[in-house]
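In response to a reviewer's request, we include the raw inputs and outputs for one of the modeled complexes. The two entities were modeled together in a single run.
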Amino acid sequence: MSTLSHHTVERLDRPSAYYVGKNKRRKYSHDEPEKQEEPTDNLKNATTLYVGNLSFYTTEEQIHELFAKCGEIKRLVMGLDRFTKTPCGFCFVEYYTHQDALDCLKYIGGTKLDERIIRTDLDPGFEEGRQYGRGKSGGQVRDEYREEYDPGRGGYGRAYADDQRRREEEDYGKGR
Amino acid sequence: MADYERRPHGPRGGRKRRYRDDDDYDRRQRRRHEEPLFVKVRRQLLTIAESAARRAEDDAIHIAKTVAENYGDDEIRGVYLETAIDLVLEQPLKIPFIAATVLAANVLNPEPVSELLTRAGEALQGYINAGAWREVKLLLRFLGCLQGILEGDGIFPLLEEIFARAVDLQTASSEDLLGLELVKIILFTLPYVMASPATRFETHATALLEKTDIIASTPHALVDLVDPFCLTEGKPAATESVISLMQKQLQGESNRSWELACLPRPWKRIYETLEAQKEAQDEGAQDEEEAESASTTAPGAKHAFPQVVMPSPVGHGARAIFPEIYLSVYANQDIETVPPTSDIASSLLRDSLVDTINILDFNRIATAKYLIDVDCYFTPNTFVKRATPFDRLRELPTDRPQWKPEDVAVDAVFSQLFQLPCPEHKFIYYHSVLTECCKIAPAAIAPSLGRAIRFLYRSLESIDLDLSQRFLDWFSHHLSNFGFTWKWSEWIEDLGLPAVHPRMAFITGALDKEIRLSFAQRIRGTLPDPYQELVTEGKEKDTPDFKYMSDTTPYSNEGKEIMQLVRKKASDEEIQPFIDAIEEQAKSLGVEDPLIPSTDAFVTAICFVGSKSLSHFLSCIERNKERLLAIGPKSPRAQRQIITSVMDYWVDQPGIGINIIDKLLNYTILTPLSVVEWALVDKLAAGTVLAKPHVFEMISATVGKVTNRLRQIVAARTQPSLYEPQLSVLDETLKREKTDMQALFRVIEDSIVSVAGGSNDELMERGDGSGTLPEDEIIRRWGQRWLRVFRRKAGVEESFIVEALVGAAPVGTVALTPVPDDAAASEHAPLNGNMDIVEGDGGK
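The model returned the following structure tokens for the whole complex.
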């Protein structure tokens, strides 16, 4: 019933700084004066969430099991590696109502699924093509250069691992 | 000026970097500029009493002085008035401290106080008009704390008026619940008035209490409905509503000259400090710094109570009101770690905590922090030190309470999670609060949760079935956030119980849910040896076997062919010959309904081909939905065969099966009635099916779908400015669907009632036919518990519809000014009689 204009604590059901920042940057670079709308306007009635930091091994069923706790799921789109078409650690969850999506941000974002802390972000809606990773090697961009070993997300970042391998090969001579 | 660093763990602090990518920018700014005074006032107000290291009284005086001395500054004025009221409404634990800043300010400068009272009055009026009774309660609490600086009888005339409205409501109907809510407001305001600096109101309070007694102490008919325990044996305490409890506790306090030990009295120290400062100033009056502050003696000027009008009759907001029952998961311990219900602290602590939890659902991390900090907001030493281990309590002196702050906090969360008929927010919110509590203070919270779990586990036989399901759901979800670690070894003895025993049902149900959130192999690894056999090999199989692969399965050839065709995305015509072949064979074998074996083969094939993931399954359904949709109208038994085939295929992973059933309902391939009849008629198995948690889950979800839909229709039907012809269309839909819903509840009732009464034929025939086997009694109890849940659901929905329709426009209402056609059409676009309100497009 809270209808205050200012809350005394931060709300967790706002779009992330990443989303706001991404759209701000885009707005400035395009330099279109007539596009004055707030970057978050298209999230007013959003029913879709971007879900990140999943393990590559987390299944649709597991995601369903957790996310259905916030409301009936209308559609679930797994994020896939552009080349191998295998899960690459993100997905889109679409609910029937905006409120369910907000509740998901509040109650599920930052909790664990498959023993990993997952990230949720309000999303304007899934479009064909967005289910694929945008990284050079097919997965997500963040998995290209990651220097930490993450067994749930294919080990080291791919670009990073390639780089390491090249260096090793140079050190030891090709063909072992 | 002291440089306040960001509090490292505050809910607004820098800890949550992931929410604040612009953190660096923020910090640089802060370093460069001196914090403006109004920002500081806001921050000090927001964090008042949060730290055990600082005295809330000192902060209150500091805030009061800043505001009193700079009241000409519009920003300071605005920030103070707004933040104070916001805090009252959002952080109830802080109300006595916010009030303390007001009491302090009043000694120095009455101007901000009178303006704040006006604002509080306006807000109060707004919430009264809207029927937002929790907000009314909180604002009255705040005003009650200020009774000492109010003219005349202060808050009492309004309390009397609220009571008069409660009497009106109770007189009008014995079923009234709003009147009880109003009495609750009065009862929860009184202690704060009596703990305020105001004196000479004992007779007022006692007189009011005498009046509320008749309403508060009369048990309401619905109390039994929301009782968390459904069977008399094993019940920890007699069922008492929150208000009857509070009434008794207040009467006790009135006999103890309103000791109200747990309520903080920050004003005492504030008045002393201000007096001392005034004396010091008076002595040094010749000083040039003849400050005007502290010029008057406490409490300062008196103010009129703000003008507030109670409408007659009063209304109530959107949330349905039900009687509340005091539940504690720490009842009957050998050491009291939470206040007993004989102590008013039980109600006062619970009320503030519950409001905090329910108001702050938009930031579970903040909620958890305030829960952990509960000891900061009540009289010091109300609790033992945080994280004192349970066993250490024995060594502490027994002359004062040994209440553990984390037990009190956790108890409050469970009271909401286990609220009947349902809590204010989704269950998962309460899960998430407990998760955060555990993250903030694992050493303190985890053992408390452990004792709560043991209490609930021991209560499994007597607790309401809905609540045992919520417990199951929370337990598995909670463990999934903490590496699935639980001391399973302590329940090993129970593994010898029959499968239908509630404890065994809980154990198997919990493991199943854990696996659903994780995977079988992982969960197997968390279990001691005796549990290993519960995680069967079948649970580890990603793709269960296709039974038609075995040549001994009837129709195995056709089954295999159909499966290949489904896999190849063949057309319906290509599949038809094999369906026909099965049906002809079946006919020749004398099968009564040949559509049953053909449906089995077809659906099992779809399950097998779609076993890779739900998406795969759904695209199979999408391609074959015409055939599937045609089954139900041809033969209800074949329709139920669809469910049998799905649940048989996924027998080791019923969670997946339930999910599929849910989607088939959306496609209307199944009807809610078919699901209920399948479970409670076809598969009743002398009632043993009632012991399966996943069946309860399936039926609850199906019923939930029906009631949700009906509520949406009601919402459409009762929206303002709805006119003919839409009105009649919606009314028709409502009537039709309501009849369907009632029919559904009747089927549930009819099939369970025989199990509950022990008169089920099959039940009678079990074993030696005497119906007196130990398991027979267990099954009867399952029946009684099921019955209670679904009778309650039926009752709640029925009364929801009746109440919602009270103010709705009657059929035949025509728009006064004709609305242009197209405008009307677009306004009611989704309600044009097709009623596809969230029909569910099949979750494609």
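As requested, we also summarize the result in words. Helices of chain A lie at 17-30, 60-67, 98-107, 158-172. The mean pLDDT of chain A is 86.
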